[in-house]
């Protein structure tokens, strides 16, 4: 059965659809990959930051959603999520803490099987939830010389993900973005 593989030596990811994502993947190299043809591009008006969302194949009968975040040509991080929601609209009207918990538990288990015990993390109650609601776990982290892998639930954004961060690329990209000259154009809605 196809599964995810993450190489603890360098952070290379093998997806169930057979795609391999290495830490040195450039945006141009991704654009010539078969996955690019079906990827949705999202730039949020903050170029050269850009995200590509695509299917990574099936994991235990569920679609694995993959997202690559680039700053210009540099792969900053990869996010993965098993989609346990029923078919239909993916918006706040269908959001469920029970589904998020059902997503987080297999993410945690998968990473623990692949990488061993996390370096940091554990259980906690997420605020005061209504009676009968589930609890979500604190983020789990695996640290490596090349970067960090985490399993998280984002209560603000409403998602549960496995995120593979490469080194200090996020800090460097944020610094580079902030140092860009101001163009004088501001979008206000």
Kindly name the structural category: alpha+beta
N-to-C span: 47 Å
Along the chain, the helix and strand elements come as: EEEHEEEEHEEEH
Total count of helical runs of at least 4 residues: 3
Determine Rg (CA atoms, Å): 17 Å
The description of the largest β-sheet is: 7 strands, antiparallel
Percent helix, as a range, is 10-25%
Structure write-up:
With 189 residues, the chain is an alpha+beta fold. It has one domain (5-178). The chain is 18% helix and 32% strand. The protein has three helices and ten strands; from the N terminus they run βββαββββαβββα. The strands form two sheets. The chain has a seven-stranded antiparallel β-sheet. It is globular and about 45 Å long. The N and C termini lie far apart (47 Å).
């Amino acid at each position: 059965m196809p599964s995810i593989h993450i190489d603890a030596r360098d952070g290379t990811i093998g997806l169930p659809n057979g795609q391999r994502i290495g830490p040195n993947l450039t945006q141009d190299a991704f654009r010539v990959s078969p996955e690019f043809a079906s990827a949705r591009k999202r730039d949020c008006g903050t170029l050269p930051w850009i995200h590509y969302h695509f299917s990574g194949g099936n994991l235990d009968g569920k679609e694995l959603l993959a997202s690559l975040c680039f700053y210009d040509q540099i792969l900053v991080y990869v996010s993965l999520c098993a989609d346990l929601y029923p078919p239909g609209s993916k918006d706040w009207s269908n959001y469920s803490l029970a589904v998020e918990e059902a997503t987080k538990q297999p993410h945690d288990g998968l990473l623990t099987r692949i990488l061993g015990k996390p370096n940091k993390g554990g259980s906690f109650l997420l605020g005061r939830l209504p009676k009968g609601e589930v609890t979500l776990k604190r983020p789990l982290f695996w640290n490596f010389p090349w970067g960090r892998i985490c399993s998280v639930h984002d209560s603000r954004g409403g998602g549960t993900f496995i995120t593979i961060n490469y080194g200090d690329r996020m800090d460097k990209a944020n610094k580079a973005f902030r140092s860009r000259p101001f163009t004088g154009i501001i979008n206000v809605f």
